[in-house]
């Protein structure tokens, strides 16, 4: 009988039993079939899951490696084009000694990139710029897999944090500690990296001991020591970068010097002597004496005349006190001394991408504060995107009634743009055309014919200005007409037989400067007729402004 039924008849409670446990009987033992203990069914699933996890990890690692390579390549491009940010200089410094660098990806112009002192990159940056720099450094730390490269970026992080801390106002507790900061810096500054490491071990041992010590002092000393240790390590990194770069430059300069020396020897040796076969060389000619350059005596007429009166173009300049100017000069010299770097070779005229049809007045742009030492290139836009747009427009050529127009006017800029501390200002490139033609008015019909045509006059312009790297692409560049001497639209101050002119100024956002051209001031024809061809658009980084002047017909 079932034990539960038997217990119910006897009037007692049955023994508790799990429904999944085997049935128990005094006479017969009936058990449920046990489930297989092995996990053979789930084993393939787990194997597939582990393979997918490994594959996902591999994909993520490859993606991080790709992003890191692209970030370094972008930094090189921005440095080469003269629009580098502080993080780009730090990335270029590491590129020279990067052990994970692929030699097959080496750029031909790498040796021409400037190498600057990494500590000097932080000079002159405000708190907002340091915050952006710290975020960029953290991105490199997250992407880097090489241990040495991670140590490099962590060192940069320590120095960046120290710079930000110095810019913030001190609290009441920090003022007391900062009273001895100068003495601590004076103690730690001359020590080498190895000496600072041994001193760090001693300080940490003293803090762990139970000796009665001034804890605040020793903690501040340890904090300052870590900063100076990072600076010392940075000096070692910079020295290794300099050694690597100097060796490459020295080898290249030696090859160039040998080539120049060989050419000079050929030039100075004079024409080669022709000796007939069988005849002896004259004994009197033993060596060729080199020809020396003529010596020019000094003369006072070569000196510039002293300025007794301020020039008109200099009157709009900034007025600064002499003492402030000298302080500024001393500060800039101190930065230059700290930033001794290997200068790059200047690009020759054969490597310039500018065309002969567009040669505006080139001037060095006002670089962001504290970054003039990094840039020695002109402020024209020579990016690859600009070059592609420029070459495509040049390939279209000019029509029979068109000429290339490059009459750029210089603009008086009293101060740098507000965004100059973030982006390097540069002038946009352009390829403009001026439309020329004949005006067959009554006078010209009377005095000229098709065999003897009248002089050509300006009938319109086609401006094509390239802004491929515009930061705010949603805001299109604009233009403005400027008339000098208080002249208004429709008025004429020109003499008889001449035409009034005005300036057309094109205005865009960062990183482009304004640019202006002098044009004939006539009324524009805004009609949409195909032969008139008015066009004002901004598409794919190109600002196009095409217009013709209205034709005036006189009725009797």
UniProtKB/TrEMBL annotation:
SMART domains: CactinC_cactus
Splicing factor cactin central domain span: 52-237
Gene Ontology terms: cellular component: cytoplasm; spliceosomal complex
Domain of life: Eukaryota
Biased composition (Low complexity): 351-366
Residue stretches of biased makeup (Basic and acidic residues): 1-29
Regions crossing the membrane: none
Domain Splicing factor Cactin C-terminal, chain residue ranges per copy: 419-556
Biased composition regions of type Polar residues, renumbered to the chain: 30-50, 281-291
Region of interest: Disordered: 1-56, 278-298, 347-370
GO process annotations (BP): mRNA cis splicing, via spliceosome
Family: Belongs to the CACTIN family.
Protein name per the record: Splicing factor Cactin
The organism of origin for this protein: Monilinia laxa
Native organism taxonomy: Eukaryota, Fungi, Dikarya, Ascomycota, Pezizomycotina
